[in-house]
Amino acid sequence: MDLWKLLEKQDIEGLNEAAITGRLDDHLYMYHMPYSYTAEQIRKIRTYLFHMPDKTPPRILMVTSALPSEGKTVIASNLAISIAKGEDQHVLLVECDLRKPSMYTLFKYPPSKGVAEILQGTANVAECLIKTPIDKLTILPAAKESPANPSELLESKKMSQLIQELAQRYTDRFLIIDTSPIQATVDPKIIADQVEGIIVVARYRYTRESDFRMALESLPRNKILGTVLNAVDELPAKKYKYKKYNYHKYY
Ligand SMILES: Nc1ncnc2c1ncn2[C@@H]1O[C@H](COP(=O)(O)OP(=O)(O)OP(=O)(O)O)[C@@H](O)[C@H]1O
Ligand SMILES: [Mg+2]
């Protein structure tokens, strides 16, 4: 099956078209408020990815952080929308937090089969994909029911095959993988081996320097693209600030 042909069509049988029923969550700033300050900061991340010196844009990206609730899912989702809004980039947003799926609360679909069921062999990719109201953005949820052995599933050969299948070698296709927190699980480290680039989120006045440092140290250094300092203040207009990760600063 050519998965991307399927995604391009988006209306073929098998794609979960009717899944999204409600108004998308307000935290999807790129969708609801594309001209806000926050959306502008997200767009800067996108621009950075597309204009990395001496590098073609990494297409298999992972968003992670040290602790729970730092904004990984919000950042991954907004970045996915931002890239999909580009002229010709298709994005598959893959939720790999198998323990605590939450993407459905942002995009308003019911808990749905996804990565876990595919890896367990009880579902195929096409039947799990969720079509979103954003053109060229498709979601692969984590799981309808959290599996008992998430790390083992993610570590399996099937997982690397799945990522390869999803990524196929085209230059205008992006995979954005949302993960669980590094301090709570080994999962992000497992997924890190499969991706081309990693974005590490920290939350303003929440993430301790020691936690952040630990997160950076546990990831492959050459894959870390940058950090996002999230929720910089509580003013709705200034929720994000992006700064390029300066490697030498922290060591
Ligand atoms: N920039 C922001 N402004 C306001 N609220 C935010 C912002 N980023 C995240 N939040 C809120 O903070 C909470 C945690 O965000 P999110 O679910 O994205 O974090 P997470 O790192 O993915 O958490 P988990 O580790 O549980 O997966 C959510 O309620 C989300 O709506
Ligand atoms: Mg999350």
Automatic annotation (TrEMBL):
Its UniProt entry gives the catalysed reaction(s) as:
L-tyrosyl-[protein] + ATP = O-phospho-L-tyrosyl-[protein] + ADP + H(+)
UniProt keyword list: ATP-binding, Kinase, Nucleotide-binding, Transferase, Tyrosine-protein kinase
Molecular function (GO) terms for this protein are: ATP binding; non-membrane spanning protein tyrosine kinase activity
Q: Which InterPro entries match?
A: AAA_dom (IPR025669), Bact_polysacc_biosynth/exp (IPR050445), P-loop_NTPase (IPR027417), Wzc-like_C (IPR005702)
User: Can you name a GO cellular component term?
Assistant: plasma membrane
* EC number in record: 2.7.10.2
Q: Does the keyword ATP-binding apply?
A: yes
Pfam entry (one):
AAA_31
Q: What residues does the AAA domain cover?
A: 71-192
Family listed: Belongs to the CpsD/CapB family.
* Record-given protein name: non-specific protein-tyrosine kinase
